[in-house]
Specification:
alpha+beta; single chain; 220 residues; four-stranded antiparallel β-sheet; five-stranded antiparallel β-sheet; Immunoglobulin-like; 9 strands
């Protein structure tokens, strides 16, 4: 009786261990499969997002951006009204594309010992400092001060091309811009020459001639 009881107990324990092993491996299989499927789904879902970012970048660059300019092509001239003068300025390009603008960043006049910018505007035109040239706006002004009679001067501007539309159109527009300053006529140059000619030359010859004539007459 003891032997049969021991044998039965051993068989029961073996069957219980086998059932437990099968039960453990059974759930494990589907869990592994579900994990792999989830990872695959995540990988598949992430790919379109990457492609979307790649295609959005060019459109973003087309919508905005700016290109630094060394100088702007400008035309116009000064009124030659005297020491306090006014310069009317326009951009020498009538083909500013839609979605593009030329923003003035710096206004210079020179030579510095001849003419300087006085700041502000004149003749009811907006000031050129920070002015934006577009297809509908192409006129600004600069107040200048002549320091002395002498050589003529110049006026130059620097700025950027700002793009809110197609970047390729802005690049094409930018490639056609070449720096060109405005030549300023010094209104004080003529005054200096005239005053110098009439001021000293006639007096000296007249006095010398009169003294020489008087001396010669007395000797005779």
């Amino acid at each position: 009786m003891s032997l049969r009881h021991w044998t039965g107990a051993f068989m029961g324990a073996a069957l219980l261990a086998l059932a437990t092993a099968c039960g453990a491996s059974g759930p494990g299989g589907p869990d592994s499969g579900d994990t792999a499927g989830t990872q695959a789904a995540q990988t598949t879902d992430s790919n379109p997002a990457t492609e979307g970012m790649g295609t959005e970048a060019p459109r973003s660059s087309e919508r905005s951006g700016s290109i630094q300019l060394a100088g702007l092509p400008i035309g116009g001239g000064n009124d030659e009204r005297g020491k306090d003068d006014c310069v009317g300025v326009s951009l020498l390009s009538s083909d500013v594309p839609e979605g593009a603008a030329v923003v003035v960043g710096q206004v210079d006049a020179g030579p510095g010992n001849v003419v300087t910018t006085a700041g502000g505007s004149c003749d009811s035109a907006p000031p050129c400092a920070s002015y934006t040239f577009t297809s509908q706006a192409n006129a600004c002004s600069v107040a200048i001060t002549w320091q002395k009679p002498g050589d003529d001067g110049w006026l130059a501007m620097r700025g950027t091309v700002a793009c809110t539309g197609d970047q390729s159109a802005c690049d094409l527009f930018r490639s056609g811009l070449t720096e060109q300053p405005i030549t300023l006529t010094n209104p004080l140059a003529g005054e200096s020459t005239t005053t110098g000619t009439t001021g000293s030359s006639p007096a000296t010859p007249e006095t010398t001639t009169a003294e020489t004539t008087t001396t010669s007459t007395t000797s005779g």
